[in-house]
Amino acid sequence: MNLRIKILLSLLVFAACKNEKATDTIQQISHDVPEKVDYLITIEEFKIIANRPNSKVLDFREKEAYEQGHIKNALHIWRTDIENNSYPYKGMMASKDQIETVFSALGISTNDTLIIYDDNGLCNASRLWWVLQNYDFTNVKLLHGGFEVWKATNGLVTIERPIIKKAVFQLAEKPSMKYYVSKEELQDALNKNLVILDTRTHDEFSGKRQKKEATKAGRIKNSVWIDWADAISYNGDKKIKPVEELESIYSKLNITKNDPLIVYCHSGMRSAHTTFVLTQLLDYKQVKNYDGSWIEWSYFNDLPFKKDSLTQIIN
Question: Distance between CA atoms of 83 and 28, rounded to whole angstroms?
């Protein structure tokens, strides 16, 4: 073998080793990037996860419904538990300290996995998911079908309350607030090329209906309407519709999955559900939920709004 061939072979071996190391590096980087969390679980998955020692099941229904029967060992939580009452209007997201206090008192620790269910298509559950996402807590699962699917599969229902031992629950010191938009940020967005989705009923959007806690009827200027309930079988089992149907529903908005979106509703509950659907099921990249929503916006007379019809005030 002459010198030229030896040099050529050495170069080929070196190149192969270099490529192998590069491939290993790429694979290592890919491995280190966290995979997208799957938050939505079936009843079968629920029965497995709920029995783990570090799992806590949260019943996010009204107190009366919880007391009439709930899943065994489920802890009760309600909207007022995750609201900040320091504002002159209702519905604002609870502070980090408030969430830590409430969860610690419920016996939830930082390393626990939370499994949340409700009885209204995951609307309440999605709000709690949204709050926790903003505070960078991702150990969360939502039971698809909620309490009704539990009963339909002959799940045990009890009126007994679980024994609670106080724990320590802590959130990130500097949370990302990744799905959160404030009133001031929304004001700024009105002057930009940004889509604002109103996820309430059409009567609320048009101004025909004024719900309790709002100081006037109407909608935020430049917003477009899509009912949050279009995403679930509202008159059926209230499960979220298949992805193919969801794609068809939201494609009518003529927006891309990379377009920045701000969603809102009456108090940020229904729009939290839309935020969940868009980001977790349809892979929209830039979605924010306006925390105060119409309750807060309507409180300030200097903020731009529109309405199309006479108003009926309905509680």
Answer: 42
What amino acid is encoded at 4 in this protein?
R
Token pair 């509703």 is at which residue? Answer: 265
What is the chain's percent helix, strand, coil content, to nearest 5? 40, 15, 45
pLDDT at 112 over 90: yes
Tell me: the pLDDT tens digits for 63-75? 999 999 999 999 9
Cα separation, 292 vs 284, in Å, equals 22
SS3 call for 104: helix
Do both 141 and 236 map to the same domain? no
* Residue in 223, 207, 212 with CA at minimum distance from that of residue 264: 223
Q: Which domain holds residue 247?
A: 180-314
Q: Establish if 241 belongs to a structural domain.
A: yes
What are the tens digits of pLDDT across the range 125-183? 999 999 999 999 999 999 999 999 999 999 999 999 999 999 999 999 999 999 999 99
